[in-house]
Amino acid sequence: MSDCIFCRIAMGEVPATIVHADDRVIAFRDLDPQAPVHVLVVPRRHVGSLAELAADDGGEDAALAAALLATARRVARAEGLDEPGRGFRLVANTGPEGGQSVGHLHFHLLGGRRLAWPPG
Ligand code: 5GP
Ligand code: ZN
To answer: What is the DSSP string of 104-118?
Structure first.
């Protein structure tokens, strides 16, 4: 979608600090980080939200769901967040009540400080 900011980042039309890229998934640093590590894990293909991902279809969406999780895990490791005593959080804000502001599926990978619970 040409008017979607994350599609434009995925196509290289808008700059971002990319930390991972493959044929299905990109990961880049959030413009307004809420923690020392704040990376967005994003499918290249436009999917509006997690509610629009048919993660149990046994096909492309299921493969995409697995790839998104694998990328989050890989970036967490690369950022040192899986070391003893550390940790991270993976969040997909979904829909208006979920606090989603960009209408292209993304997981926030947050870490590098002690995170409070519950979120606001
Ligand atoms: P949401 O509110 O949808 O869960 O998260 C959207 C996130 O995207 C926010 O944390 C926001 O800072 C980030 N964001 C919005 N526009 C851009 C952008 O152009 N570049 C980057 N790197 N992050 C963005
Ligand atoms: Zn998009």
So the answer is: S--EEEEESSPPPSS
Q: How far is the CA of 31 from the centre of ligand 1 (A)?
A: 6
Backbone angles phi, psi at 27, to 5 degrees: -135, 135
User: How is residue 42 written in tokens?
Assistant: 């994003």
Atom of ligand 1 nearest to the CA of 34: 10
Whether pLDDT at 18 is above 80: yes
Summarised one tens digit per residue, pLDDT across range 41-57 is 999 999 999 999 987 78
Written as one letter, the residue type at 88 is F
Q: What is the per-residue pLDDT for 98?
A: 97
Q: In what order do the strands lie in the sheet with 18-21?
A: 18-21, 25-29, 37-43, 107-111, 88-91
Sorting pLDDT into bands at 50, 70 and 90, what band is 2?
A: confident
Long-range residue pairs from 91-94, CB within 8 A, at least 24 positions apart, any chain? 91/119, 92/49, 92/50, 94/49, 94/50, 94/51
116: which 2 tokens? 């409070």
